[in-house]
Amino acid sequence: MGIATCYPCAKYLLLVLNLFFWISGLALIALGIYFLLRPEVQNIIHLFNFITLPLSSIEILACLLILSGIIIFLIGLFGYCGAQQESRTCLILYIVLVTCVLLAELALFIFIAMYHEQGQVLIKQHLVSQVKKYNHMYPSQYEKAVDYVQSKYHCCGINSAYDYTESHIPLSCCSMTSSSFCTVHQVSLAGTPGCFSLLTQTTFFWTKFIILVELGLCVLSLMGVFLAICVCQNTMHYDGYTQAPYYI
Question: Which of 1, 23, 108, 219 would suit a FRET pair with 126, their CA atoms being 20 to 30 Å apart?
Fold first, then answer.
């Protein structure tokens, strides 16, 4: 019993697997668009757009999701066509693309693991410096984003309300119906937390979800490479001419 014996099973498993890749690619594209269009995410994007670190922007994350979805969809297309048409050219291209994607994801995971904590510290420092420049008299998109996040998460400042000691405490920090002024003392007594920890919890949830999805796709990609090699060794067609199937 050799590779040729498992060829029919490998072929149909590869077809099903790449149909799943199509669906996964479309799901990632939809998730990226959802991130871009959701009002909550849009306001967080405006909050981070004032940071000069491109990797800290949720907008970049959404674009990466869309790009990843397109790549996975195209890889699934090559794998499906290669298995269906028994084309070694498509299958070899499929194996090369999947291998490149796996290596890129491995490098990305290593990078995130190495610089995750440093990135959080830099982001927090930039946010604190920006929030000290909060201008309640002439609110821009940034001030509106700060107010949205503080109202949404019932928080104040980045670390605490004391981040506003050099400016003005926004009304979004206070549970008031009137237009009275807030003081740091009032907010602190109310036990209002800083926003950074709450934002970190939200981003951690989505980051964990995305990592789990990517790990699942990595496992399926390895299965796809194995199945593609099996089908490629036993296919009947190679660049337009016919050859005898390969048996072991």
Answer: 108
